[in-house]
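Components:
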Amino acid sequence: MMTVQNDNLIIAGKTFTSRFLLGTGKFSSKTALAESIAASNSEIVTVALRRIDIDRHEENIIQYIPKNVTLLVNTSGARNAKEALRIAHLARESGCGNWIKVEVINDSKYLLPDNAETVKATELLVKEGFIVLPYMSPDLYIARELVAAGAATIMPLGSPIGSNKGLKTKELIQILINEIDIPIIVDAGLGAPSQAAEAMEMGADAVLVNTAVATAGKPQLIAQAFAEAVKAGRLAYLSGLPLEKISAEASSPLTGFLYE
Amino acid sequence: MHFDLANIQDILSNQDPRLTERLAQEAARITRQYFGRAISLYAPLYISNYCSCFCTYCGFNNHNHIPRLKLTADQIEQEMQKIAQSGIENILILTGESYQMTPLSYLKETVLISKKYFSSTALEIHPLEEEEYRELYLAGADSVTLYQETYNRSRYAEVHLAGKKKDYDFRYQAPERIARAGFRQISLGILLGISDLAEDLFALFSHLRHMEQTFPGVEYSLSFPRLRQIKGKDLSLSRIDDISFIKTICLARISFPRIGINLSTRESPTLRDHAIELGVTRISAGSNTSVGGYSTADPERQNPQFDIADSRSVPEMLRMLKDRRFDPVLTDWRRIDNT
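Structure:
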C-alpha cells in the first residue's frame, strides 16, 4: 500500500498529524466530549473562554482535554476587537496558553463574523505575541490583510455556525486556497463527513467541526467518521482528482464543421 | 419561519394533538441543532418589594398590604454569598417598580456587589432612561429583562392602574434604550393570562424582530411567565393551559432558532423537565421569590412575588439535567470590564 509520508499540518511552527479540529460546545456531557476527542484523534481543540470555569463550580472542561492536545481558546462573546483583546488577555492570565481563535461576532441572528474588527483584533494580538487563528467570512482582501497582520492560519466559514448547511461558500474558499499561502482551516457549517471530505479535496489544510459532532446521536462515532473523511479528502487532494470527463463528446455542434 | 397572526391563532386554537406533536418535534430539532444539550442555570434575587404601581395581577402591587422590605448592602451581600455557594454564576436581580425606594444609586451599588460573586449579572427592574442604563452597564451589569406584559394598549391600561408603569410607550421603547446603553443581553416577554395570547405573541415576535434588525449584536431571549397564584390567591384573568403554553414555547423557538428561552420556577417540575426538550434553554434553580428569602428572612413570614412550583435545589436540578442527558451550564460568561 502506498502511504503518504510526512504530510503534516504545520501551524506557527508546530507540527500536527491530524487535520481535524474539534469544537467543544453543545455536547450532552463532558464525557461525550472526551470520547469524541479520543475517537477523532484530534490534536487541536477549541474552547470558549466564557465556558471555562476558573472557580471550579462545575467540572472544568479543561480536565476533559488530554494534555497532548493543543488548546485553542476562542473569543466567543466578543462583539468588537476591543472585547476580543480583553478575552484573549483573560485567557492568557488563566493559563490557557497563547493560541487564540479570534471570533468577533456582532450579529446574534446569523453569528456571522465581523471581518473588519477581526483584522483589527488579529493585528493587535499578533503584536502581543499571540498565535492568532482568525475566524472569518471568506473574502480575498480580508484574507490578505489577515496574512499581513500575522495570522497563523485563516479560518473561513463554510456556512453560518451551527447551520449544518455544508460548503455554501465553496467558490470563495477555493479562491483563498488558490491565493493564500498560510494554512486554511474551513470552520463552521459543516454538517456531514462528506462535506468535510469535499473541503479537503478542494485543498483546504484542515477543517473544524463542532455542532455536527456534538448534536449527533453517537458523537464519538461521527467524530471518527469526520476524522476519516478528512483523511480521505486529503489523500484525494494529494492524488489530484480525475477529470470529470475524459472522453470527447460524440457530437460537436459548434466545431464539427472544422473536421468535415 | 415567520408566523403571521392568523397562523398563530390557528395553531393555538387547533385541538389536534398531532399538530402539537409536530410543533414540538420541529422545535426540539431546532433547539438541539443550535444549543445542543446545554442548559444554562440562573437564580433570581429579589432585593426589594417596594412598588409604586398598581398592577391588578401582581403580589407586589401597592394596594396589597404586605410588609415592604428592601435589603441593605450587607443583606444583599449575604444573600449573594448564599446563592454563589450553590454554584450559580448567573444572577437575576429583581425589584418592584419604585423609582423612589430603589433609585439608580441603590441599583448601582447592588451591581457592584454582584460583580464580586457572579460572572454575569442581569437586572429585572423598572424601565430607565438610556443614561441610567448606561451607568448600570458600566458598573458591570450585562443583561436586562423587561416584559411589556401585554402589547394590547387598552388591556395594558386596564391592568396597570397607577404608577410610572402606566406609561406604555416608555416601557415599550426601553429595550432600544437598553441596547444603546451597551447591554449584551436583553430578555423580552409577555405575561400569559392577562390578554389575548395569539395577539400578544404576534406583537412580541414583531417587537423582537424589530430589535434584532435595529440592534443585531444583542443576544435576545424570551420569557413566558404564566400568571400564578400568590399565597393561594388567583390573580389571573384567563387561564393559559399547558397545551397552549407548550405551543407558545414551540412557536417562539421555530420563529427564532437562536434566541434563549427562559423558564422560571413558576412552572412545575414535570412541565419544566419537558420544556427543556422543546426549546427552553435557561432555567432558574433553587429559587426564592421573596425579598431576603435565601438567608435573611424568616421563612414563615415571606411574601413571594409568586408561589414557587418547582422547589428543587441546585444540586437536584444538576442531577435531573444529567439524568436527562443534558449538560448543565453554570458558567457561560467571563466578565470583561464593560466600556
